[in-house]
Amino acid sequence: MTLPLASHDYGAHPTVLPPSVTARDRLQVPQETRIDLYRRLQELRQFEKRAYDLFLQQLVKGTSHLSLGMEAIAAGFGAAMRKDDYTFATYRGHAHTLSRGVPMAPVLAELLGRANGLMGGKGGSMHLTSVEHGVMGSYAIIGAHLCVANGAAWSAKLRGSGQVAVCFFGDGTTNIGAFHEALNFAAAFRLPTVFVCENNLYMEYTPIRDVTAVERPAADRAAAYGLEPLHVDGNDADVMYTTAATALARAREGAGPVLVEAVTYRHGGHSRADPGKYRPAEEVAAWQAYDPVHLYRDRLTRLGVAEEDLARIEAEVGRRVDEATAEAKSGPLPDTAEAFTDVWADGGSSWRN
Amino acid sequence: MTLPLASHDYGAHPTVLPPSVTARDRLQVPQETRIDLYRRLQELRQFEKRAYDLFLQQLVKGTSHLSLGMEAIAAGFGAAMRKDDYTFATYRGHAHTLSRGVPMAPVLAELLGRANGLMGGKGGSMHLTSVEHGVMGSYAIIGAHLCVANGAAWSAKLRGSGQVAVCFFGDGTTNIGAFHEALNFAAAFRLPTVFVCENNLYMEYTPIRDVTAVERPAADRAAAYGLEPLHVDGNDADVMYTTAATALARAREGAGPVLVEAVTYRHGGHSRADPGKYRPAEEVAAWQAYDPVHLYRDRLTRLGVAEEDLARIEAEVGRRVDEATAEAKSGPLPDTAEAFTDVWADGGSSWRN
Amino acid sequence: MAELTYRQAVARGLSQEMDRDERVLLLGEDVAGAGGVFKTTAGLLDRFGPERVLDTPIAEQAILGAAMGAAMTGMRPVAEIMFADFFAVCWDIVVNEIAKMRYMTNGQLSMPLVIKSGGGGSLRLGAQHSQSIENWAMAVPGLKVVTPSTPRDVVGLMAAAVRCDDPVLFFEHKGLYAAKGAVPDGEIVDELGRAVVRRPGRDATVAALGLMVPRALEAAGLLATEGIDVEVIDVRSLVPLDTRTLLSSVSRTGRLFTVEENPRLLGWGAELVSLAADECFWDLETPCRRITTPHIPLPSADNLEDAVLPSVARIVEEVRKGVHT
Amino acid sequence: MAELTYRQAVARGLSQEMDRDERVLLLGEDVAGAGGVFKTTAGLLDRFGPERVLDTPIAEQAILGAAMGAAMTGMRPVAEIMFADFFAVCWDIVVNEIAKMRYMTNGQLSMPLVIKSGGGGSLRLGAQHSQSIENWAMAVPGLKVVTPSTPRDVVGLMAAAVRCDDPVLFFEHKGLYAAKGAVPDGEIVDELGRAVVRRPGRDATVAALGLMVPRALEAAGLLATEGIDVEVIDVRSLVPLDTRTLLSSVSRTGRLFTVEENPRLLGWGAELVSLAADECFWDLETPCRRITTPHIPLPSADNLEDAVLPSVARIVEEVRKGVHT
Ligand SMILES: Cc1ncc(C[n+]2csc(CCOP(=O)(O)OP(=O)(O)O)c2C)c(N)n1
Ligand SMILES: Cc1ncc(C[n+]2csc(CCOP(=O)(O)OP(=O)(O)O)c2C)c(N)n1
Ligand SMILES: [Mg+2]
Ligand SMILES: [Mg+2]
């Protein structure tokens, strides 16, 4: 991956130019996995676009953070993870949730604040959780969930279950204390935690480079925990799939944690309110041109997948997104009594006798 | 420095064997500085011994954490720092406080909880502070003061004062989140902060090695902040003095922060209540044999300082410790009205009108 | 006199103080280039430059540590903690260091700093981005705590906070950022520790903070039509607490209601009620009542959030019921 | 029946539960090899092995994160935060994650964990190692909060905490570690949310917690000689709160005094007084009074610390004065 520098108001920042991705056509990924990866990319892409549309229609409440442009990471890990592995996501967690097999309708319904939402409307976009699918929560305060993922990994190790805990977080998260505590803890106790930094070059509005002592915010910290630096192209689903498969295998066999830095870019702003104007137009354009969905479609075409097969997948996904939208929209508002349930294990919220 | 491994109950840990220290006789340290360093070593040693005696006499209240065996670091930095530089110390801060020129009597009186104590009895052993001498506080909760030191460094930079903030902390502190936040912050903004890790191989009772992903808890993290690893012999006052002088000069001229790891050992337990029995006898013995005070005395003798000059320094310091003890003991208890002062800038503690 | 939004008033207040005193600095995540994620610091980078207005890494301990160290050595920093909920990641620096340092050092160190933060609910942001935590801060000796409810007060209290030699936690209410109000021209400086009677009344004292102030006022208007004449006090400052204004009102009306956004247990109203139950004991005609969010985390769905935050309707109902006890 | 110290009782309680349920784990700084810096976990490493008893780095966020993640996935961890003051360095995981996760996920995740910690003053450890912060925890929905005052209760409440499917903050009082008391043989399991009347009385209710319980009892003994018959209630559990026992006592005696070690503002007593001032309003004969540490950080010198923590003499004086108001 070449990272020539472009400059803009905030300083100098790397822009990925399309590398010779054709060389990656030769990566050892089975054809059916590739089809699966493409389906996932489409799901994540089309879902997020729909979420954005619903936001424009003022149906999505609160905030939401989309993964448009970053889909290859969730697709690759989703395809490589074992059914009982654990996912720990952030507020930018739609893609990671869906990629574990959580149906779209309850996720959309949660964004709309409906009773048929994934958490009945009590969590919202930033806290998607589906324990049944191994999605152990989406965490909206930077840092904590890296430590929490370790706990699930520790428990898996004690139970000898072979499960791995995979924790996704952004570049900005590498500068907070909990990152350091979690990485050292995982390494010291050789926990099966895979830490995945989705480096999209920006925190909310500030470029990561302006406030970070090293060039590669995660990879350049790996050695501080006795780990290998893994710096990969987060826009290439095959790269992400093979990276995920290797990392998971290593963690699963007891070799301790893995730290992956996947470089990517978000097409839109940080959250619903942000048009993302602080980024230079050429930078955005360069990354739009290196779109993970298009890149992968081109590869599949080169590898002989028929245009009509690809189009069928796209159309199918589109239908499912439409159906999920209809289902979500038809959900009733939550009963207000629900606000008083599940504070405690007894199902209620009483703090007195 | 050779660090062969010794093993004990808790795992395998490095023991420093006396290196060929005679080679260090040739370090470029002026003779008068060497005399000054020796005086400081004696002050710190004799003071801490007295503090321990007073503890045995049940006159020292609360807790106290001694630096016996670790004096060379405070001596070296104390001698190299500019009068207006800032010191940020921990609960193990007697030596760093004294080495900035704070008189012994108020420090001892503070340990005794007397009105003539350095903070009038309101802070205690763990919070020694003398702003007048640049001692900007001793901090008893691990981590925070690394961040605070940055603030003083930032302010110095903005004021163009050329001051450097020096922050001392233990090996165990390198695993807490604030360490990471502070180091990155200092490096990102090129602050004149010198971070000094006093690696005495142990946290309270647990060897640092058992819970740390890397061998050298500070030096092996330097690269994560774009810094050079500096791993030095913390028991050699000349090494510490030259290390300090170089680090301070670099920070002062605007080259950004410096991270020093000084390897040392505490002769006693972690705090007053701890006999330190968890350490293997051979390890303790090896380090006792590598005592920073004896090592330095031997060097001065080799360099031609007369035995009687050394003895005079020792006796003089002894006298001053005795005088300080008498002065501290003669102090009255604080007036209980003092408990209600200095919560607020108006001198009082009222929260209502 | 200008009509400003609450969010504009924050920048106006900061600007006023940064103009006056070059030791005043501003640091936080996205406060410079982006002008703040809530746009409360818009324009300050251009006006005061990158030395005084600093975009930081996501590292709240580093941010507050830097503010503290700078305050100890001659500066007067204003640090932003983006959402009040995030105080939890740097609570140690706030409560164990900033709050206690002057005391522990017997007055050797001064801590003239402000920590500004957006708190409060009503924006459907869920349990981790909606908390009102003024009560957390009130419980810690050594911290001053203010929450303005109008654009004018934002300016005046910010100025007072910046000029104060003690650490002040300055809570902005996210639900008020878009609210507009008249702000007089020229310098505005309030005094910390002064509550304001927003509406005089004889039958009951209603003490409110932040977003609950407009709600309490609206409720008072409705209650007036029923013949219940309520005095609404904007508490504004929890520490120092204007017990003179508050308790004299309670003694006069014989009734106290607090309207609090925080969860029920140990909300700031518990302190006020405890004070009234002690010092106004003989004047009370009916039990003191706290109108609060129930003791639950905040849900995100709009109808659920509306159901649990104190609403105008709930205030009306509780006061009516309480007065007729 | 054995005579145990309070610190031994902690290990006994943990042992009882770890024996019973192999999902119970223990982690924290120096809890294994050293048996805890307060020796409250002595012998557990030998008995349960290094897989279940873990010495951690100094990284409180990592510790509580590990406990939380393990609790979410089938374990029942007990984590130690050495001094209660250190909760501030990991407060985010406690209040924003552990406390809210069940609610935010609509009941999908369970949080059966205990965080044990040594709190409280009287040991001359100064402002950063002496705090009583039960009130911080009480203010956060989703946390249960207990503080035992006797060795027997240490065992019973620890067992109840470990068996509870909700997160429990278990505050040990450092000033009581050396105190001895009789502990019955065999399994002891208490119920969370039960206060205990330690001394029945008719003239006033005195509610106390932790180290303040023995002091309140001693004060009650002295007051009895003056003809003031005080009921002393050991609150034990702040969440859930045994309002039945507490408020019925207040209604009966007509007077409430709280004895709190925390600083004055928003101590746990403010909640209790607010409840009493509302629900026992018509029964109160004199104002409710809170006997607390003043709103200051704790000083380290022995005579200063003694002057500010509620003492037996101060309790006697305040109750005497209050009863005769
Ligand atoms: C402790 C904390 N500080 C600040 C925030 C506000 N915040 C939310 S997302 C974000 C940027 C995160 O950047 P990054 O880690 O790169 O993730 P990205 O959003 O780019 O995926 C910030 C500062 C937060 N949620 N938590
Ligand atoms: C946040 C926090 N956690 C735990 C402690 C308790 N504690 C005090 S000193 C200490 C060991 C520190 O070890 P190290 O950093 O190596 O310093 P040393 O005492 O060896 O000089 C611990 C765990 C603390 N003070 N603060
Ligand atoms: Mg990012
Ligand atoms: Mg150490």
UniProtKB/TrEMBL annotation, chains A, B:
Task: Name the InterPro entries on file.
Answer: DH_E1, PDH_E1_Alpha_Subunit, THDP-binding
Cofactor(s) recorded in Swiss-Prot or TrEMBL: thiamine diphosphate
Alphabetic keyword roster: Oxidoreductase, Thiamine pyrophosphate
Segments forming domain Dehydrogenase E1 component: 40-334
| PANTHER family, sorted | PYRUVATE DEHYDROGENASE E1 COMPONENT SUBUNIT ALPHA, PYRUVATE DEHYDROGENASE E1 COMPONENT, ALPHA SUBUNIT BACTERIAL AND ORGANELLAR
Q: What is this protein called?
A: Thiamine pyrophosphate-dependent dehydrogenase E1 component subunit alpha
Source species: Streptomyces spinosisporus
UniProtKB/TrEMBL annotation, chains C, D:
Q: List the InterPro entries.
A: THDP-binding (IPR029061), Transketo_C/PFOR_II (IPR009014), Transketolase-like_Pyr-bd (IPR005475), Transketolase_C (IPR033248)
**Protein's UniProt keywords contain Amino-acid biosynthesis:** no
Q: Name one Pfam family in it.
A: Transket_pyr
What cofactors does the UniProt entry give for this protein? thiamine diphosphate
Signal sequence coordinates: none
Q: Which UniProt keywords apply?
A: Oxidoreductase, Thiamine pyrophosphate
Q: Which SUPFAM superfamilies does the record associate with it?
A: Thiamin diphosphate-binding fold (THDP-binding), TK C-terminal domain-like
- The Transketolase-like pyrimidine-binding domain covers 4-179
Can you say what this protein is called?
Answer: Alpha-ketoacid dehydrogenase subunit beta
Q: Which organism is it from?
A: Streptomyces spinosisporus
Lineage at the top is: Bacteria, Bacillati, Actinomycetota, Actinomycetes, Kitasatosporales
